[in-house]
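Protocol step 4 of 5: obtain the predicted structure for the target chain.
Materials: sequence only (see below). No template structures provided, no constraints applied. The aim of this step is simply to have a reference model before the mutagenesis design in step 5. Sequence pasted as it appears in the construct record:
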Amino acid sequence: MAESGETKRIRNMIITTIEEFITLLDSNNFSIEELCSTQIGVDWDYEASSFAELGFDGLDIVEMIMEIEKVLDCEIRDACAELIEDMNPNDLTKRVRRMKRLDDLGI
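Step 4 output (structure tokens):
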């Protein structure tokens, strides 16, 4: 566990599951919402239940995954990328925030 004030980082991972993906985002304080608005040009809607409702097309998903891989120095396997695409994006971000809170509590 990282000491107080210390940021734990996970790099050079091969991501095969949603749980690994969430851990990767959490451990690197990575915001999908920010990536979408700044890099992909899609405004985040906290009411959306799918990436399609956010205005993503298949290419946007690929761009998002590739940018995450580049920034976080990881490889997200195709099977995991498909699961990410099928997830409710707001559920995904809630799970990352929940993990962050648990980390902050030392749980």
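Step 4 remarks: The two ends are 10 Å apart (CA to CA). The first strand starts at residue 14 and ends at 15.
Proceed to step 5.
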